[in-house]
Design brief:
mainly alpha; single chain; about 130 residues; about 0% strand
């Protein structure tokens, strides 16, 4: 009975591995997007799931608020990148209570059209988000 069970389990495992390999190959072929070159696992397209902040409703609302404050479409990506950088710096800072963004970051945001009042609000939101991001 054990021998029979062992053979059945062996067949099941090999069929599962074959199916997984087949699914991986299909996935690789799908990800080629018209390229004739076959991609290896290390060469997958950059196209992947969106960054977590893209689906974050608070970040989306923050982006809307920044647009309302007069940041034009061309500067929006740079502004959001600076804001995300400030968030990463704040999360990694040891002494969060005395954290202040770098002058360079603040100047970039001011140059994009954000007022001091808006900057304070943005930094408060970043600090509040950091509490919930672990």
């Amino acid at each position: 009975i054990l021998k029979s069970l062992s053979q059945k389990m062996s067949k099941m495992v090999s069929s599962i591995e074959k199916k997984k390999k087949s699914d991986d190959e299909r996935s690789d072929n799908f990800n080629q997007r018209g390229n004739n070159k076959k991609l290896t696992k290390g060469e997958r397209d950059r196209q992947g799931p969106p960054r977590p902040e893209v689906n974050n409703p608070v970040i989306q609302r923050l982006a809307e608020y920044i647009r309302e404050q007069g940041v034009n479409r061309e500067n929006m990506r740079n502004v959001m990148n600076v804001i995300m950088q400030i968030g990463r710096e704040y999360k990694s800072s040891i002494e969060r209570s005395s954290y202040k963004p770098s002058e360079e970051s603040l100047n970039k945001l001011k140059d994009a059209g954000l007022s001091d009042e808006t900057l304070e609000a943005v930094i408060d939101v970043i600090k509040a988000l950091a509490i919930y991001d672990k």
